[in-house]
């Protein structure tokens, strides 16, 4: 078990560097580490893009036995990169070894749907994977371990992990919808011939799937005259309520058609953004989208892992409250809720 809670480790020595020297290294687990997303993400983590330029880390990399040689190759490259923040690397196919003492777990590994496979078969395999990983984290991870599930179906995989790792606080288990959030920022910026940094407060509601709802009703852009609403600046409700939503929902498929491979670089960047903002905080007045455990906000059933707008401070997220939800938005949010309830039912049927 770690000597310090995660936030204490992150903040330790921030204001007393001369007295106490370097920070305590954080142990970061990446599952599916030999895959495309892992190969893109691991150098981002090791270079401090996720946890800051003064936070040393020890990487725990896990993959399946058939990927052991490739995983060792990744370890060799990390050694060759001579990265100052990287204080150690564990490359293993053993789940217990991988999970021991970790402060942060980024779960990239999962079973992808293959041609001809039934939905329940895919769900059954992922339920088994995430039940085992949950048990290992429950027994071996640091007490305040923060978990990000990336592998699809991300929301439901995170739900299973939450159910089978009861000692990990439910608020510490999240899933990735930051990729969809970033895609929405990018599409708005392209439409307005602006930079994505000038757009803020889009929202991804719901499931990381084709029912997700990219909502721009509260989004703003920075102009010379100050902040203005995205809907006002674009002035095209038909595009915003139609094509824009379709683009975000189908962006992953479009990238596969173009690359003949899935979106690894942008997924890795989004995972890095998710953890960075969660642990180090979001700018004042800005929110991001995270798949988190519902507390009933906006009428979403408690306990579901659902994407909400959140702000983050001191290593904790909070759902942004009081946003007005119109009838169009409510219908989209409910459709994603219903899909997640169906997925939950299917996942639980695989356990019995």
Q: Would you give an account of this structure?
A:
GO terms for molecular function: L-malate dehydrogenase (NAD+) activity. This protein is an alpha/beta fold. The protein has helices at residues 6-11, 17-20, 36-46, 68-81, 95-99, 119-140, 154-164, 178-192, 230-234, 237-241, 243-259, 264-280, 327-351; strands at residues 26-31, 57-62, 86-92, 104-107, 146-149, 173-175, 199-200, 203-205, 213-215, 220-223, 226-229, 288-293, 305-313, 316-319. The chain has two domains: 25-111 and 130-175, NAD(P)-binding Rossmann-like Domain (Rossmann fold, 3-Layer(aba) Sandwich), CATH 3.40.50.720; 178-347, L-2-Hydroxyisocaproate Dehydrogenase, Chain A, domain 2, CATH 3.90.110. 45% of the residues lie in helices and 18% in strands. The protein has a six-stranded parallel sheet. Helix 6 packs across helix 7, helix 6 packs across helix 13 and helix 7 (154-164) crosses helix 13. The longest helix is centred in the C-terminal third of the chain and has 25 residues, at 327-351. It is globular and about 55 Å long. The model is unreliable at 13-21 (pLDDT under 50).
